[in-house]
Amino acid sequence: MSAPRDDVIGAARLAVQCAARLLPTPADRRRYQAEFVAELYGMPAGAQLRHATGVLAQVHALRTSLGSTDRLPVVLGPPAPASRRFLCRYLRWHNWRTFRTDDGARYSACAVCGRFPTDTVSRNSFIG
Ligand SMILES: [Zn+2]
Fold first, then answer.
1. Does residue 86 contact residue 79 with C-beta atoms inside 8 Å?
2. What is the pLDDT of residues 49-77, one digit of tens each?
3. Residue 118's domain spans which residues?
């Protein structure tokens, strides 16, 4: 008795679940486990096994990529002075700077606390 064509075979599911367990954070593990299993649906059994093997082979690169991802603006150097942090935290007077993403897109963020501007009026003012 074989599984229907749209079902995920157990070995492929187990392989991608093991791959997801190697990822750095619980949120990453949950996300990629769901994505890896979802990718298997609709594939024939042989393709599922090949895909699961590929996922296992590439999980180290994904783990490295996820581990190096910094979701806040990269601010290198010593921490901001206490007076600057006070202005950010209590007066909401941020030090807006323009940064670039890896693909060259520009965005603004506070160089001290990493907060993103919510409107254009609050830039370097006492509001917000
Ligand atoms: Zn700030």
1. no
2. 898 888 888 888 888 877 764 555 555 66
3. 72-128
From the number of C-beta atoms within 10 Å of its C-beta (0-12, 13-18, 19+), residue 19 rates as buried
Q: Report CA 78 to chain centroid distance, whole Å.
A: 25
Same domain, 64 and 31: yes
Q: Are residues 58 and 108 in the same domain?
A: no
Angle at 53 between CA 24 and CA 19, to 5 degrees: 15
- Residues within 5 Å of ion ligand 1 by Cβ? 88, 94, 110, 112-113, 115
| Separation of CA 118 and ligand 1 centre (Å) | 12
Residue 114 lies in a domain: yes
Q: Do 51 and 103 have their domain in common?
A: no
pLDDT at 101 over 80: yes
CA–centroid distance, 85 to ligand 1, in Å, is: 7
pTM beyond 0.85, yes or no: no
